[in-house]
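Appendix B: a complete holo record

For completeness, this appendix reproduces one full record from the ligand-bound portion of the collection. The bound molecule is glutathione. The inputs are the chain sequence and the ligand SMILES; the output is the full three-dimensional arrangement of the complex, encoded as structure tokens. No fields have been trimmed.
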Amino acid sequence: MNRLFHSPLSPFCRKVRLTLAEKRIEVELIEERYWEPTPDFLRRNPAGKVPVLRLEGRIMSESQAICEYLDEKFPEPALLPRTPEGRYEVRRLCAWFDDKFHDEVISKLVYERVTKKVMKQGYPDSKNVKMGAQKIKYHLDYMAWLLDQRRWLAGDAMTLADFTAAAHLSCLDYISDVDWNRSPAVKDWYAKVKSRPAFRTLLADQVPGFPQPSHYADLDF
Ligand SMILES: N[C@@H](CCC(=O)N[C@@H](CS)C(=O)NCC(=O)O)C(=O)O
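The structure of the chain with glutathione bound, as generated:
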């Protein structure tokens, strides 16, 4: 049985879930409390991080490596362009969201508001929350600037860059931390990604102690 060891509000896990679903690869989702690592979990990934994918007997970690592997192994529908230039731009934007966006926004909002509580690590630090709420504006404006020139984030076709960005934004949307009125272009883009069948798995998520807001699963938000 194929399995994804994951955590519901991890953007890295969400990016892999979107890629698997887009390629119609069925997996059993197993929730991993990565902050209380078991010997089995560390055997699967000595780095002690989720996601971990078990696919056809192979154990894999690191979301970008997993998604690129899946795209090579199951080429349709393609999530990376054919040209080196196109692939470069997708990888650049995946790194933008997985590194910069994660550090400046996710770790300041999702970590402070949700992860800390789940891990019993105390209360949100309001300085960090304020900083994250400030920084997300810059990122939404950058996305709006990209979408002013392109149909999708990395070009004229939907790619892994869109799934990566949407995976991160969807975690924030779960805690109502995205101002969708800031840019109609970003809102339209998110609506397009959100309405794909692959997105359904994310819309069904329920995090104990954090009820899903009503707009979260609404395709007409
Ligand atoms: N570069 C990794 C990052 C994965 C990651 O940081 N996952 C977090 C959950 S969102 C985690 O497992 N953190 C545990 C730790 O850092 O010890 C990837 O893309 O898969």
